[in-house]
Amino acid sequence: MEIKKEQNGTALTIKVIGRLDAGSAPELSKELTTALNNVTDLTFDFSELKYIASAGLRVLLVAQKRMNKQGSMKLINVSESVLEVLDMTGFASLMTIA
Amino acid sequence: MEKITVDAVVENLQEVIDFATEKLEARDCPMKASMQLELVIEEIFVNIASYAYHPEIGVATFCMEFEENPSAVLITFIDGGKPYNPLEKDDPDTTLDIGAREIGGLGIFLVKKNVDEISYEYSDGKNILRMKKFF
Is A61 in Cβ contact with B43 (below 8 Å)? Predict the structure, then answer.
């Protein structure tokens, strides 16, 4: 997994490339701990995210709960296979998917 | 039947997935079913790696068998850790709103959603989880 960040004032876009699985999720989780400070608009760009497992979902849930307190969060360019996992778990209705 | 036995640590997940993917490709398993199986294998293996022997390290065995007409794969995970039936865990309520959603319980739920049959047995000191998926 690779993470690319683009910050524009209080808006942050995080592009997650590759696989968000049990091996890589802790890295994203750690990154978000500090990266979300003072962010009000968080966008996850999943155009190059090929795979997500429950470890990745947990990171998204924690991020969503945090952003509900300090701003908003959305997922963009979600692939079909990732969307299927979000749908199955009810995450698709908890999050803004654009 | 083909099988692989590895130390149940997250670092060995890829080895198990590669083993499975190669066999699935050889059987012309469609990409979608193959990706769903990858998710199933990850969730089970990570559970074993995280809890079965904790804080020790033990081994997990992964077996695959194929059936034809209709095409199906049978996968089995065996570990010698603490007795644990993942099927006894309640499914998470996927209709709850964000504040009430819990962080855990998603892995085994995804497993159940992505296989056609699943059964658990504790036998001879081993956890045996069998699954079947048509493709």
Answer: no
Q: Which residues pair with B132 in a beta bridge?
A: B74, B117
Q: What is the pLDDT of residues B44-68, one digit of tens each?
A: 999 999 999 999 999 999 999 999 9
- Which among A54, A64, A90 is the nearest to B94, CB-wise? A90
The answer to whether A5 faces chain B, any CB pair under 8 Å, is no
A35, A41 Cβ separation under 8 angstroms: no
- Domain of A82? 2-97
Question: Which residues of chain A make contact with B109, given a CB cutoff of 8 A?
Answer: 89
ipTM of the complex: 0.89
> A45: which strand partners?
A15, A76
- Asked whether the beta carbons of residue A89 and residue B107 sit closer than 8 angstroms, the reply is no
Whichever domain contains A78, its CATH number is: 3.30.750.24
Q: Domains in chain A: how many in total?
A: 1
Set out the domains of chain B in order of their start, with CATH numbers: 2-134 (3.30.565.10)
pTM greater than 0.90 (yes/no) = yes
